[in-house]
Specification:
Strand content of chain A: 5-15%
Largest interface: A-B, 83 and 83 residues
Number of helices of chain A: 14
CATH superfamily of the largest domain in chain A: Type I PLP-dependent aspartate aminotransferase-like (Major domain)
Largest sheet of chain A: 7 strands, mixed
Oligomer: homodimer
CATH topology of the largest domain in chain A: Aspartate Aminotransferase, domain 2
CATH class of the largest domain in chain A: Alpha Beta
CATH architecture of the largest domain in chain A: 3-Layer(aba) Sandwich
Number of strands of chain A: 12
Helix content of chain A: 40-55%
Strand order of the largest sheet of chain A: 2-8-7-6-5-3-4
Number of domains of chain A: 2
Chain lengths: 401, 401
């Protein structure tokens, strides 16, 4: 028979930089080595007991389709939760429940952009944004946020240079994955004003909103612009409630046109999972106020442990992340991916090793990330210290090769 | 502020024909009218108790991401289940678990086609295929299957007329949604040979595979071509196990390239829901052999009840569907959507009414469906009889207006 070829886009889609070296980690584990996973944003924090209570309360005999816009009680509970924790006003009908923030972003890219249209993002960026853009046929246009400046937003002139007549939106993620940098109120104001001036959507990925440390308080773009039709918030239960596997996110906007149009796209995939939404609604209604405070304190400990340990390694350049649970670190190696592979495939220390995500995959301008790696501080303090100890030993061995 | 506009594709995406009149049904219900839902493929059959058992067995403390390719035990169980029930050989690594058949189709459209490439489908077609095509930027090219011929596959010459140098695949759904027509072994052979000759993928949507009546036995394209790299099966637990809300489907192919490329796209959305996959794996491992036989018998009763009742209404044209739980019916009205709206908004009979899906939305050549409607026989026999009784009375009233 004739060979049948795949599409160019399938061949050209890059593999996830987070999961790229997973096969090496699997091999290491098979040979009896314990792998510290600092490569992936999968916290080891227990999911709230209220979610499991919700699961047990599901008593329907038929696991039927949910509405395309989402479980009504979940929209109500999420709206109430946000109103209470952020002291703002949202209404349930401004929500559309999606399968994780991922699906919300794919939908929004389609709703805001025709194929070939452009969205401005800040480099380094969450690697999967590239996948969503490839699915939606959207061009992401990167503006570099500089490590020397703690990955803060670039200057207005740098952003404006990249705005063309195809630009449709600016996408900001604060607290940021992968850098851990948090936008100030002034920075969000500046972005909004820029969008206003150039008639762009402002898509605010607030997946990590409550994970802020030191003097920061949770900040939403809705604090500044609750009624703007150009503002769309993307939110998720995955990280905040350690529910990555429930696949529940949402988009939130007072722009009814966006909700209505996105709903048409959402109808094609019918609905998000019924039981997970049911359990999530129960959880948001009943969760104790101190759950998140406990999680935040735990991540603060971990952030400090990672920062303190990495600071001790000669020639490692690190900034102190103010939010989320990631940071991008410059390592004293020529190629961080080669070093990450070495750690997994040619090295062990006390029968352990450390899995980090090479940062090149988080940079659209790959070369900017070639000596850097993203660290996710999702393990407990003790494990983080052991992971960095192993990494430091590995670094010496690697450089002594 | 300046108005900000949505993308053309968002504005141009058609609403789901299945859910389009839902707001009228909601209104009718609020006014105390019982609505018989024959518009949507949401069976009222109880989901297997083995699925709920699986739910209760989930004991992890962290609802973590599942692997992008799917829960390993689910792939193993699904492969075993297919091997046993169809007497064929598949291996777990040929599976990629998706959020319903919907996501599998979106992924495949992307993996097989670049934007602007074409896929041949048969008209009428499952309306959401149009949504998937719009998401993937793929052109669906319809070939009419004629009601006079019981919606059987069109002649070779009709299909070949539509094959161009952009054609990448033929997509067949048997048993068919919306017509209930089942392809014979000879028809599947004919399609495969055509794909072979023109170097196309053959995508076989087997969501309803086990729902066949009269002399039919469940038939997969894998019975004919178990080792062809151009064959991709799309499957789903939604209908077979009354698990629409669990959102679990898969694609299945011996083409490793397709699996590897689709996996890269799948990684961008991280994974399908963890708990639903866990429960589904338990269910497929433990389900009793007679579950599906019971479901099939029940749908056979319903098919007969619908067919017998509709046959009695003067000037209604109906063919006897051989599979799935749908049929497309020609009604003695000028515009079936207008009639369906009338039933929901201006009519009731003994405080009930009937919700049917206008068929125009299932035809890419809309005009072919203007006098037709899709009926889903998903209610029990008694309810179907009452639903058609109400419809018959409504038809008289509508025509007497």
């Amino acid at each position: 028979m004739t060979n049948i070829n795949l599409s160019d886009r399938a061949r050209n889609t890059p593999p996830s930089p987070i999961r790229k070296l997973a096969h090496l980690a699997a091999k290491a584990k098979k040979s009896g080595i314990h792998v510290y996973h600092l490569n992936i944003g999968q916290p080891d924090i227990e999911s709230p007991r209220e979610f499991f209570e919700g699961l047990r309360l599901y008593q329907q005999k038929v696991v039927a389709y949910e509405q395309s816009q989402g479980n009504e009680n979940l929209c109500i509970a999420w709206s109430k939760y946000i109103n209470k924790t952020l002291q703002i006003h949202t209404a349930p009908e401004q929500f559309l429940i999606t399968m994780g923030a991922s699906e919300a972003l794919v939908f929004l890219f389609m709703t805001c952009c025709d194929p070939g249209d452009e969205i401005i993002i800040f480099d380094p960026t969450y690697a999967n944004y590239l996948g969503f853009a490839s699915i939606a046929g959207v061009q992401l246009v990167p503006v570099l946020s500089d490590m020397k400046n703690n990955f803060a937003l670039p200057a207005r002139s740098e952003i404006e240079k990249k705005i063309t007549n195809r630009t449709r939106a600016i996408l900001v993620c604060s607290p940021n994955n992968p850098t851990g940098t948090v936008c100030s109120r002034e920075e969000l104001r500046f972005l909004f004003d820029l969008c206003e001036e150039h008639n762009l959507f402002l898509i605010s990925d607030e997946t990590y909103r409550e994970f802020v440390y030191d003097d920061h308080k949770p900040l939403s773009i809705l604090h500044l612009e609750p009624n703007s039709k150009r503002v769309i918030v993307v939110d998720s239960l995955s990280k905040r409630f350690s529910l990555c596997g429930a696949r529940i996110g949402c988009l939130l906007t007072c722009n009814e046109e966006v909700i209505a149009a996105t709903l048409k796209i959402a109808q094609a995939r019918l609905a998000a999972p019924t039981i997970d939404q049911f359990a999530a609604a129960h959880m948001l209604e009943h969760i104790q106020e101190d759950y998140l405070e406990g999680v935040r304190s735990e991540f603060l400990l971990r952030r400090n442990a990672l920062y303190d340990a990495l600071k001790e390694i000669p020639d490692v350049v690190i900034h102190k992340p103010q939010g989320a649970f990631y940071t991008v670190v410059q390592l004293p190696v020529n190629n961080a991916e080669d070093f990450a592979s070495f750690l997994l495939s040619q090295f062990s220390y006390k029968k352990t090793t450390t899995f980090i995500a090479p940062a090149a995959g988080f940079y659209m301008q790959n070369s900017q990330g070639i000596q850097k790696a993203r660290f996710a501080y999702v393990l407990n303090k003790g494990d983080i210290e052991l992971a960095i100890e192993a990494l430091a030993v590995g670094l010496k061995q690697y450089k002594g090769q």
